[in-house]
Amino acid sequence: MYRALKIISLLAALAVAASCSSERSLPKASEDVDANVGASGGAAGGNLGGGGAGLADAGSGLGSDDGSAPLIDLCPKDERRCSSGAIEECRDGAWTQVMTCGGFCLNKACVACKPDAKKCDGSAPQVCDATGSWTASGAACDTGCNAETGLCNGCPTTGQRTCTGKDVFVCSPDKKWVKDVTCSATQGCIAGACTACDPGVSPVACQDARVRECATNGEWKEKVVCENFQVCGVDRCLPTYASTVTIGVVESVKFSTIFQDGSAILVGRFKGSVDFDPTPKVALLAGGPGAWFVLRVAGDNSVVWAKAFSGNILMNSLSPGSDFGALLTGSFFGSADFAGRNESAATQGTNFIIRISKDGTLDLRAFKETSAASWSITDAISRPTGESTFVGRFSGTLQFDVDGAGYTSIPDNTNGFVATLTTAGKVSSVQQIRALNNGQVSPTNVIRSTSGGLWIGGLASGEIDLDPTAGIDNRLVSRLSFFMLRLDAGGAYRAGKILDVANIDFSTRLVALAGTSDDGVVVGGNLYADSGAIDLDPGTEKVSKTAIGENDFFVIKLNKAGEYQWGNVWGGSAWDELAALQTHSTDEVLVSGSFKGNLNFANEQSPVLRSASDGAAFAMVLKPNGELRLVLNTGGAEGSASAGFTQTGFAMSGIFMGSVDFQPGNGVEFKEGSPSLFLSRYSL
Fold first, then answer.
1. 203: cis peptide before it, omega within 30°?
2. pLDDT higher for 505 or 358?
3. In degrees to the nearest 10, what's the CA dihedral of 74, 78, 82, 83?
4. Residues β-bridged to residue 456
5. Of 283, 282, 343, 280, the residue nearest 311 (C-alpha)
6. At 249, is the secondary structure helix, strand, or coil?
7. pLDDT per residue as tens digits for the range 10-34
8. How many Å is the maximal CA-CA distance in the chain?
9. Is 531 helix (H, G, I), strand (E, B) or coil?
10. Which residues, at least 6 apart from 26, have a Cβ–Cβ distance to it below 8 Å?
11. What separation in angstroms does the CA of 300 have from each of 256, 264, 453, 580?
12. What pTM value is reported for the model?
């Protein structure tokens, strides 16, 4: 299954001096400012957010010809296939065994035997025909039928050869069948000889970027040559382009959450009157400058619902809910309209969490009664129980309600917190990630680990205590860097690590986290050119990488103890950024974003180069060891584009301007944007 993740709007500095209502622009990056609200009227949290995709569960593995971990295979709904003498059916995006065959499985059905198999029926030899049925292969044997070989005892001509299953028999001088050789599992046995392939067992296979078909004579012949953006996936080229729709005229697309049923929740900014439904239906929203849209698009690209928010609202994160809904976090100042629900913020501004159900019902929790010198919610996740876990930072004394306990930071420090919100909207627990002696701690990302615990990432500097429980894990972080910590399902502290960065600046930030099967985590982020080196290994060894171009991106895999497994930095000469990542149950990793110019997605020894002079969206799949499995780029992208898996493949969303060809292969499909949201779909 696919592990849920979310992409959030992140800060990249802990300074709290700018106005909350201001926004800054990043070249080719998203524009939202993560805001603090506080008694002083609020202060902006320094840097900017990245849109992204939260993904829902689906799928199982697809075998590959190189012996490595399987390429992600999202099976078509209700499709059937044969697998090791059984029939499997695609249910909820995964291959599930529904029947065990007593004989053999052929063409998605149970049959009596494997074609070309032989046996004896009394004294008569039989052969299994192409339909999987036993038929007489000749008259009854005068010398008797050999049950072991399925041949008559005795043979007519010395040197004559024949097959029984994978075994080759030769007629000896004394006219007896003698086994000569057994063909390998990948070979066939036809007319007394081992052949390159077995048409009854392996009708298709891959060779490089070609799909091969096993002919009736047991020789491979080329069936399809995959296009330059595709790879061979056993019996077909992957991925296959399906369609692209454009939606409205918008200012930006900040976040997207894509579900296995093909639907998506999209969040961004717009102004004026916009029809957000790409079908002949109409989903009209109206808003002034800086208005937000939140819409759900169905798998058939029709809009299920569309909401408009207006006022001085800042969005920090979007993550998928457990019921195909979503969680939004952010803050607002003054008066705001949340899809018809009017709210007035506290004097210092108000942070919020919005639960959105599948049908579009909004449940707004505005923390008006919460007090602190300044504080913000930076990310939240949904629990299977319906509760939510959210993280953020504060200075002064944080108190979520007038009767509750206060949580105090040392003066001039910024502390982190981890809190639980009940289904009734009450804060039931709070834990601090403490800063000491002018230290700074700011959680920016949270995900649920595979075993039900938490991975939390963010920024830290100075003296800090990474353990939010009663224990102590003090660290001295000499300069602003990234931190990672893990809590188990019972809330116990299990790991804490620091990822050192020479100079966190401008667009350098954590963007996304995703869990792995070993209870570890994959960490993704962006690295600005002036930030210098990042040490990808939080342990004693040093794996130092620097940005190659103006802005690059990194991906790191840590195990459950926070120990380095692999990592890399990707980038070209221009602006390249990561917007989303996702892990599969096989621990393959889907990474998506945008790039401009030339970018090598593999390594110097075996480069996989892609070029996009005007910018393009990309999606790449990494093997469990971090090596490249697959990459495609398509269309133009203004800022980042985010990909997420569906039941039949994956979808990618973003924003584009002008005339763009969204067909990544040899075909052509131009769309016009001014600027517009796009949603492209691919099948696997």
1. no
2. 358
3. 50
4. 446, 485
5. 343
6. coil
7. 333 333 223 333 332 222 233 333 4
8. 105
9. helix
10. 48, 506, 507
11. 17, 11, 35, 23
12. 0.76
